[in-house]
Design a protein that fits this description.
CATH superfamily of the largest domain: Nucleoside phosphorylase/phosphoribosyltransferase catalytic domain
CATH topology of the largest domain: Pyrimidine Nucleoside Phosphorylase, Chain A, domain 2
Strand order of the largest sheet: 1-5-2-4-3-6
Number of helices: 18
Radius of gyration: 24 Å
Protein name: Putative thymidine phosphorylase
Family: Belongs to the thymidine/pyrimidine-nucleoside phosphorylase family. Type 2 subfamily.
Number of domains: 4
Catalytic activity: thymidine + phosphate = 2-deoxy-alpha-D-ribose 1-phosphate + thymine
Shape: globular
Number of strands: 18
CATH architecture of the largest domain: 3-Layer(aba) Sandwich
EC number: 2.4.2.4
Keywords: Glycosyltransferase, Transferase
Distance between the termini: 85 Å
Largest sheet: 6 strands, mixed, barrel
Helix content: 40-55%
Length: 502
C-alpha cells in the first residue's frame, strides 16, 4: 500500500475542542476502514514536515464530510498548518511510553523522577489522550502523591518547558492557592512591589474551578497573552508584569493538566503544589509568598489542612531552591464586592485609585502581602509602611497603568447589560456566606468565559440586613444565563446564612 493510499484531503472542521487535537473521518472512509481506526483511537497525521497525534471522532450520518477527506479541529489545524488542497498521511502512532507508567500509578506504585519526566514529555508531545491524562490526574488526587513524588512532579513540569534567567537580580513572586472568590490581590501587589523598585514578573493562570483567575481579570484591563520577549520588555521597562503563563512555555504541561482538571472540577494537593512551584521556578523567582485562605467553604477548610499543605509547599520549595514564606489568611467569606473578571477588575482599580468605596478587605490583604514581599526583598522594619505609602501616594496606581500600557494598552472594565438582585428573605444578621455556592452562581451566570458576568456582593458577614434588601446582584451578558444563575440562587437560599434577631 502506498503513502497515497493512507492519505486524505484535509478540511477545517471549525470546531473548538479546547486544546485537544481531534480529527473527524466518515465511517465509510477507506483509511478509517483499512487501518481499523475506531472512535477515540489515537491517529498520527503527517502533513509536509509537520505532524500531530489526534483523537478520532467517526462521523456516521450527514453529508458534511466527504469520504475522501478528514476534518481537523481548530487545535489540530493549528498544529499542522496545512495549505490549500493539502493532504494528510494517516498512521497508527507508536504507543506512548508514559502509558505503562500511568497504569503503574493507577495501581498504587510510587513513581520516580524518570517516570514523571516520561509522562511530562509524552503529554507535551500530545502522545497522551485526554483519557490517559484524566487517569493520571485521578491517580494523583487526594493524598496519592507523597513528598518525594511531589518534588519529582514539580521538577518534571519545570523541566518540560523553559526557565527564565534574570541574571543576578532578585526576583520576587506571590501566589494564592485559591478557593476564595474575589481575592484578586495580585495586580495590586505587583503594582506596589514594582513601584518599590523590585522585579516581579508575575505569570498567572486562567480559572480552573473558579469564576475568574488572575489572568482572566487582568485581561479585562490589558492584554495578557504575551510571549517571552514581550514579557521581558515589559518587566525591563516597568519592573513587573501580570501575564498569562499559558503562552510562555513556562511549565507548559501545567496548562495541559489544567485542561483536564477543569471539567473534573478538582485539583489535588500534590498537583497544586507542583503546578504553583514549577511555574514560580520557571519564571525565575527566588523568593515567593504563598497566601493560603482557610475557611469552611474555601479550598483549604481547616488549620490542620493548611498546615499539611504548608509542609508540602515548604519541602518542595527547599528541594528546588525557592525561599518561601507562607501566609495563612481568613477564608470564611469572599473578598471584595465583585466575583467575575470585570467585577473583580473594578475592585482592583478602586483600591489602586484610592476610591472611598474601595473594598477594605481587598486593600488590607494586598497591603499585607506586599509588605511581606518587600521584607523578603531586603527591607527592614521601617519598610512596613512602605507598601501603604506607595499605594496612598498614587505611585502604585501609576505603575499599574504603566504596566498595562506596556502590555498593550489599558481598557476600563464595564458592567454586564443584564442584572438581577437576590434579596434577604428575612430580617437579621449575615453570619456566614458559602464561598462555593456564590462562586457557582457566578459561573452559571457566564464567568469567566463571559468577562462581564458574575456576582456583585451587597452584604458581608456581620452585616445587619432587612427583608427585601439586596444580598447580591447577578450580572450576565444574556437573559438566558441570567435566568440560569437566578434559578440556582433561588434553589440555594442557604448560601447566605441569616440569623433572625433574638
Amino acid at each position: 500500500m502506498t503513502v497515497e493510499d493512507h492519505s486524505l484531503r484535509l478540511l477545517l472542521a471549525g470546531i473548538d475542542t479546547y486544546s485537544q487535537p481531534v480529527v473527524y473521518m466518515h465511517e465509510d472512509c477507506h483509511v478509517c476502514r483499512s487501518e481499523g481506526f475506531r472512535a477515540l483511537a489515537r491517529v498520527r497525521i503527517d502533513c509536509g514536515d509537520r505532524w500531530v497525534i489526534a483523537s478520532l471522532n467517526v462521523v456516521t450520518d450527514g453529508d458534511w464530510l466527504p469520504v475522501d477527506a478528514a476534518a481537523l479541529s481548530d487545535t489540530a489545524w493549528a498544529a499542522l498548518q496545512p495549505g490549500d488542497g493539502a493532504r494528510g498521511v494517516f498512521s497508527h502512532p507508536e504507543p506512548p511510553a508514559a502509558a505503562s507508567v500511568i497504569r503503574a500509578k493507577v495501581y498504587g506504585e510510587r513513581l520516580g523522577q524518570a517516570q514523571f519526566d516520561t509522562i511530562m514529555r509524552d503529554a507535551l508531545a500530545q502522545r497522551l489522550s485526554d483519557l490517559d491524562l484524566a487517569a493520571f490526574v485521578t491517580a494523583c488526587a487526594a493524598d496519592r502523591l507523597d513528598f518525594d513524588e511531589t518534588i519529582g512532579l514539580t521538577r518534571a513540569m519545570q523541566g518540560a518547558g523553559e526557565t527564565l534567567d534574570w541574571g543576578d537580580r532578585l526576583v520576587l513572586d506571590k501566589h494564592c492557592v485559591g478557593g476564595l472568590p474575589g481575592n484578586r490581590t495580585t495586580p495590586i501587589v505587583v503594582a506596589i512591589v514594582a513601584a518599590a523598585g523590585h522585579l516581579i514578573p508575575k505569570t498567572s493562570s486562567r480559572a480552573i474551578t473558579s469564576p475568574a483567575g488572575t489572568a482572566d481579570t487582568m485581561e479585562v484591563m490589558a492584554p495578557v497573552a504575551l510571549d517571552i520577549p514581550a514579557m521581558r520588555r515589559v518587566v525591563e521597562a516597568q519592573g513587573g508584569c501580570i501575564v498569562w503563563g499559558g503562552g510562555l512555555r513556562l511549565s507548559p504541561v501545567d496548562d495541559i493538566l489544567i485542561r483536564i482538571e477543569r471539567p473534573l472540577d478538582f485539583d489535588s494537593e500534590g498537583q497544586l503544589v507542583a503546578s504553583v512551584l514549577s511555574k514560580k521556578a520557571a519564571a525565575g523567582a527566588k523568593r515567593v509568598v504563598i497566601d493560603i485562605p482557610v475557611g469552611p467553604t474555601a479550598k483549604v477548610r481547616s488549620q490542620a489542612a493548611a498546615a499539611a499543605l504548608s509542609a508540602r509547599l515548604e519541602a518542595v520549595a527547599e528541594a528546588i531552591g525557592l525561599d518561601l514564606m507562607i501566609q495563612i489568611s481568613d477564608g470564611s467569606q469572599p473578598v471584595g464586592q465583585g466575583i467575575g473578571p470585570a467585577l473583580e477588575a473594578m475592585d482592583v482599580l478602586k483600591v489602586l485609585r484610592r476610591d472611598p468605596d474601595a473594598p477594605a478587605d481587598l486593600r488590607d490583604r494586598a497591603l499585607n502581602l506586599a509588605r511581606v514581599l518587600l521584607d523578603m526583598g531586603g527591607g527592614t522594619a521601617a519598610r512596613h509602611n512602605r507598601a501603604r505609602e506607595l499605594l496612598d501616594s498614587g505611585e502604585a496606581e501609576r505603575r499599574f497603568m504603566a504596566i498595562c500600557e506596556a502590555q498593550g494598552g489599558f481598557a476600563e472594565p464595564q458592567f454586564a447589560p443584564h442584572r438581577m438582585p437576590v434579596v434577604a428573605p428575612r430580617d437579621g444578621m449575615v453570619t456566614a456566606i458559602d464561598n462555593r455556592r456564590i462562586a457557582r452562581t457566578a459561573k452559571l451566570a457566564g464567568a469567566p468565559q463571559r468577562p462581564r458576568a458574575g456576582v456583585l456582593l451587597r452584604a458581608q458577614r456581620g452585616d445587619t440586613v432587612h427583608r427585601g434588601a439586596p444580598l447580591f446582584e447577578i450580572h450576565a451578558e444574556t437573559p438566558g444565563e441570567l435566568a440560569y444563575a437566578q434559578d440556582y440562587a433561588a434553589s440555594h437560599p442557604a448560601m447566605f446564612r441569616i440569623e433572625e434577631p433574638s
